[in-house]
Amino acid sequence: MVLGVLVWLRCPVLLVTGQHSLFNETTRALHQAILKSCSDKTKVEFIEVGGVANVLEEKVGHFMLFTVFI
Fold this sequence. Notes:
- By secondary structure, the chain is of the alpha+beta class.
- The chain has one domain (14-69).
- It has 4 helices and 2 strands.
- It has helices at residues 2-5, 24-37, 55-58, 60-69, and strands at 13-18, 44-49.
- It has a two-stranded parallel sheet.
- The radius of gyration is 13 Å and the shape is flat.
- 4% of the residues are buried.
């Protein structure tokens, strides 16, 4: 249901996950589902940070750099 709305996606989507996150595969699956449903695939970005589970707690500096350059 929600993915059907993504055809009308107007703002960029950034998915960030840690390599060791419990939800890494879920986040990857969500990314693929969004790409399949979204008409403008340039608005969907996926970043996996290596060596961490929780990016915001373990590598907040990396996350800040990602958000500055995107």
